[in-house]
Fold this protein.
Amino acid sequence: MKLWGKGRSLDEKVEQFTIGKDREVDLKIAWFDVLGTMAHVQMLASIGLFTSAELGSLMKELKNVLLSIEKGTYRIEEGVEDIHSQVEKDLSERLGEAGEKIHAGRSRNDQVLLDIRLFMRQEIMYLVNRVKSLFDVLIKQSEQHKSSYMPGYSHLQVAMPSSFGLWFGAYAESLTDDLTLLQSAYHLVNRNPLGSAAGYGTSIPVNRKMTSRLLGFEDLNYNSVYAQMSRIKVEKAVSNALASIAATLARFSTDACLFMSQNFDFIRLPDEFTTGSSIMPHKKNPDLFETIRASCNKIQGFPNEITLISGNLPSGYFRDYQLLKERSIGIFEELSSSLEMTLRAVENMIINPNILDDGKYRYLFSVEEVNERVMAGESFRDAYRKVADLIESGDFKPHIEINHIHEGSIGNLCNKEIQERMERLITGFNFPAASAAIERLLSSQ
Amino acid sequence: MKLWGKGRSLDEKVEQFTIGKDREVDLKIAWFDVLGTMAHVQMLASIGLFTSAELGSLMKELKNVLLSIEKGTYRIEEGVEDIHSQVEKDLSERLGEAGEKIHAGRSRNDQVLLDIRLFMRQEIMYLVNRVKSLFDVLIKQSEQHKSSYMPGYSHLQVAMPSSFGLWFGAYAESLTDDLTLLQSAYHLVNRNPLGSAAGYGTSIPVNRKMTSRLLGFEDLNYNSVYAQMSRIKVEKAVSNALASIAATLARFSTDACLFMSQNFDFIRLPDEFTTGSSIMPHKKNPDLFETIRASCNKIQGFPNEITLISGNLPSGYFRDYQLLKERSIGIFEELSSSLEMTLRAVENMIINPNILDDGKYRYLFSVEEVNERVMAGESFRDAYRKVADLIESGDFKPHIEINHIHEGSIGNLCNKEIQERMERLITGFNFPAASAAIERLLSSQ
Amino acid sequence: MKLWGKGRSLDEKVEQFTIGKDREVDLKIAWFDVLGTMAHVQMLASIGLFTSAELGSLMKELKNVLLSIEKGTYRIEEGVEDIHSQVEKDLSERLGEAGEKIHAGRSRNDQVLLDIRLFMRQEIMYLVNRVKSLFDVLIKQSEQHKSSYMPGYSHLQVAMPSSFGLWFGAYAESLTDDLTLLQSAYHLVNRNPLGSAAGYGTSIPVNRKMTSRLLGFEDLNYNSVYAQMSRIKVEKAVSNALASIAATLARFSTDACLFMSQNFDFIRLPDEFTTGSSIMPHKKNPDLFETIRASCNKIQGFPNEITLISGNLPSGYFRDYQLLKERSIGIFEELSSSLEMTLRAVENMIINPNILDDGKYRYLFSVEEVNERVMAGESFRDAYRKVADLIESGDFKPHIEINHIHEGSIGNLCNKEIQERMERLITGFNFPAASAAIERLLSSQ
Amino acid sequence: MKLWGKGRSLDEKVEQFTIGKDREVDLKIAWFDVLGTMAHVQMLASIGLFTSAELGSLMKELKNVLLSIEKGTYRIEEGVEDIHSQVEKDLSERLGEAGEKIHAGRSRNDQVLLDIRLFMRQEIMYLVNRVKSLFDVLIKQSEQHKSSYMPGYSHLQVAMPSSFGLWFGAYAESLTDDLTLLQSAYHLVNRNPLGSAAGYGTSIPVNRKMTSRLLGFEDLNYNSVYAQMSRIKVEKAVSNALASIAATLARFSTDACLFMSQNFDFIRLPDEFTTGSSIMPHKKNPDLFETIRASCNKIQGFPNEITLISGNLPSGYFRDYQLLKERSIGIFEELSSSLEMTLRAVENMIINPNILDDGKYRYLFSVEEVNERVMAGESFRDAYRKVADLIESGDFKPHIEINHIHEGSIGNLCNKEIQERMERLITGFNFPAASAAIERLLSSQ
């Protein structure tokens, strides 16, 4: 059954090829599709296209569909193209004309746009929670290990003293910047495209502000042509923001893999977090971090894929965009897994407390020596040259004492300020507003 | 002269290769480098590392350097690695010990970070102005041509009636979403990395809140290790936001190239905006739009290049990042040119007023017919099937009358709402705060 | 069961996360894994590590496994990491010690390398066949429609006369260049990595030339460290070559979508190849070509994804590479579908025979006029200027007569030369050599 | 002066924007442009469009232009769009009508295609020479250090014994695979596009086989439409092949940076190859390798940029392609520099001869122990488990003796076989054929 079927049937292979995995993928957005239809029919009723009896029976059947989706029993039938068609089919079969009326004033183009928005809005909420959990564990580890020193590197060369407090805290702060970016993407997500129909609006006098309010959107995509164009812009903005989180995790994993090497031996994971080799009986490999890293690198490749698919296409809908749906939906789960696994790894990480005892790190303290001289009145460049001479001649003796007090240094991590920023950010998403609207919609008749 | 020179000299070819175009590129950030040093020396004076006489003479010489940069006469000498070294060299030569003291408590790593931040902060301000100008022209054209109709396409197939009002307005709204994204990148830019030194802070008790205030930053990158990591995150965030603007321009150009084809003939540019062929005497080519499009596509490739260069590297500074500087700086100019040229093209665009007269667009109005029947009480799906039958049998007669009234439709463009959003966005950048701080710094002694 | 299990067990979530879809994906390479083991055990027997009785029973059991794979009944059990472990487990259970011996002198690292090579070698053979079929249809259409003219465009502006002969033929020739590139990737694929073990060889005196011969490889990856590094190089080379074919199909689809627009109306597909709209009763959309295009654009993004995952990693195996396996395997199927669908579309394409009758194409013939004057003795630039003047003044009258005779022009398509190149290319792959070796291996005891 | 100027002039800003850096960039291909014109005029003379006197004077003037280019004095004048226009202008001014005739039967579209092909053909020849030099040094170092052992890593974990012989040799072999890929790209480059004009051929009866022969091409792009499409395909193929070489260098640099870290201390560079820090007096940084790596990563981003610019465009020339020219030309120089610097670094690298003495590497030899037991008759899996038990209980005692003899192992590097492959590859390019043709052309009258 095609919504557009006019007696003729589509070549079977063409159908299979163009539909691809849509029937499967659409189940991930089915719940949101029904939600959107609930708002749409309420709005249509408000402009006289449904009687209140029709509206009541539609709302009731839509809730039945929601229940079936929640129970995992809902299916898109063979021969039905997508979730939108399936829901219309179900309602038409169960309610007759009332079902056949629901598509007035919209198109599958704005419907799928809406579904993806609602899906992303909720997934971002879940993701922010996961980010916050990881953030909390990083801050906790940072505080706990603030007196465990480690070498700081630049160019992978031993540079200056660092600490596990700084290291864990750095990734916590990184996540705050990631959420700043995610928040602006969230604002784009939180705009209502419904009513833009196939990208050119409709002569049905739809009330787009009403559906916006019913679905809890902050704002709407006004211009119908832009609403359609925004599909790519928003999916790209979201994937860029997710990629920024992914970049944080990937870099952390790279650090971790390096620090777990015998040549560093800064950290360890418990044995049950490492894997072995089929031929080398001694191996304890950090597959966990490598899998996080590679998975996050894949996520970082997605924005480019969006551009490759959408670039140089004129405005207006193209079926091409359908091929982005599977991955746009899937990367939330991928990133979420990586966040969860990173959290478990950070929680269980074992720190080597005596790293700096090793002689190869003695030059770490050369700048401390320069700075002591500076504080005692020598000019910086002069002190630098004198210490350099001591090093060259082999006469440098490090004073192993760390005395950093400024904001963001070993002795003053500013974790509290970073936590306050995180709190402000989470408030800024204003998730409860969206949730409250959805609850109201679900409980309306 | 190397800051780190210790008698030995660097292999000449290695020097040339590793420095690359730095001496040239650094001139673009020289002004900001001096600004940062002005804030840094004031802070060092406040913790007792300069007498007030030293501070006065340093500020005076730094202003001289600024003047020389503004006049375009400042140069990075052969044998000097970068702008940071050149300024220290100049001050040391002119002021002796006071100059040799200025590098206390910082590193070239946080200096270049700071320079790029200050540069980007200013360039974003310029760019937002350019975006606003283009936005205004798009809105103006949208209003002016709101009654000029054109076909709307989906799948490049004639779909439903659209208008030049909708078309121009769509790109105006697109720019508001772009600025939403740019604003979050701007917030990341507007954080002070100074004081993080080589990425591990310093034992000099620097006052990072003071330099933040002096330079007009909203906030600071607290954690020193993160400050260094943020280099990539911020350059990527900015380039993603610029790429979003670029995507808007590229799509507009694609539309324009298509609409200028003889097969569409929707718009024209004045002859002096088109180019000819070396062999075909009749050609008037849209090289302007093609150049904008390709240039914007290049910009869209830059975020991926950043990831390729920085991916899978552990935390800590690497020289690799230096190779991003040239392009991170250059894309502002590239995008700015494309914005300017798009504005000129939009301003001068000539609209074909009678497009819909052509018979090939008659099915544009099929949904209008369906909707009329819906408003008269038929169910949507039923009306759809009836109109489909009329089309199949050749009996469809379009009523060419457009009656769209909802938000964002042909008859109700909502340009005012879009303009209000733009105003709120520009206020949200709060550019005057940054400018005022810089002016205060420049006028301090 | 882990090959490396030593009593301890892996955290369940870590296991699930790091294995990902491996159990599923590995079934695609299972057949080749067994093949590789057949060659490996024959080689081990030749150096005395198996008795001939052991070898006989191993070969017999391996053939049973092959049969089970071919029947689709083979499974990787829950708790077993991968295909390599499963086969060793099966053989050990069925044959005892002989099974426990098979992993001598290799590692899962060179095993998976080998499996992917053998898989790709076969898939390339299938793919070349598909390319050849599409090529044949393009040539056939080119010949059939060589007198059907169409406008040629540059900058999307009407430029000079072209023909469907040229258009179809262009894509046929494009495929020959694609196969040139695929052939060099095939040569890299057709090298034996087996024996490089975990990337550092083995103290077991394996005979790598023997396994190369048994498996029909042209050559071997000599250096063991390089053999491991080649994993990325070869997967990237193959994906680049596949991307080149994909680029050909994507551009063809873009042309087709454009030419199917009402504004061009050059070609049509039968109704059963087009899809409709949920709201516009008149639509016949080219979803088929759009899906091909988007799918081929995704394929073109894969080489970049490989670089993102593998870039900046040092030599030696990393688990990260495992995440490439799924897609490296999957894109063969994706590209193959797009080739098949393009073939069906080309075969069924309906050509509009009277395109040039439309007045908007009259300037197509301006260069013909210039050239006539050139052949009559005027200088080119002079003739160009005169025709330009005629066009400006409205006095240009086209002689609609096409008289192109040079190689590769409308009148001399050179399809025969292009076909000969295709034949040489296919011979150059030398597929029968590989197939013959595999058949010998399968029939050996 | 525009070839297509018809009295009207182009808006100045539009001109500046669309021409961009063309006047500069075109000087890099000027020499080849003249060469192409020499072949073109000889061919035009052969079909009667020039008298032999005209041909003689054209050849003479073209040689004058070549000389001026070689001396570096040739310039593209302000107001002239490109090299093609400049040469026609010069010849027309010096020779009158003979100059005005030269553009018959071609277009700037096929001219620039030709120029880039000839440029690339020569640059590939230079590049292959540089690759060969680096290859030779790698083989030399491999042979020289074949008994210097180092740990082999997988997952960055100490794995099995390796050697500098293996390490250097691996990169030598990597370069052979890179050249295999470059060779197929070279075959695409070595095809003549001239005569395809603006992409649709010409009614002038040009002899494309003659120009192919004169310019030393192996073959021609037959189909005129394809000739134009091949622009992107060939630039992408070349950039992919260059990216493959770049990937080899980048990975080598990553290894080198890691091995120069104090935590590895496997290799060193002489002091004059390392750089210092502005604040840390002890630093000796591997900026050289980092710059090579980042530069090579940029090169690896170029193929994606080509796809972003060209993707989803229909067939036919677009000005967009012009924007690829600068970088398509520039990456040869970038890669060439990286090859040269890598060669200097490899030549001067200092090897630490006693790496394996360190206790942290003791488990390197666990597989040797397993294998000894296997050779003595134990089953592999059994021996593996027994050695694993020894390691767990702390009773493992490594026999530090390396006894690898198979192809590609520490004891049998197969450098000779790799060298032979390299020789065959270089012969396969058949550079002398192209050079001989160019010499003949230059010496013809």
Remarks:
- The beta strands of chain C are 149-154, 157-163, 191-192, 219-220, 267-268, 350-351.
- Residues 37 and 102 of chain C are 8 Å apart (CA to CA).
- The longest strand of chain C covers residues 157-163.
- The first helix of chain C runs from residue 12 to 19.
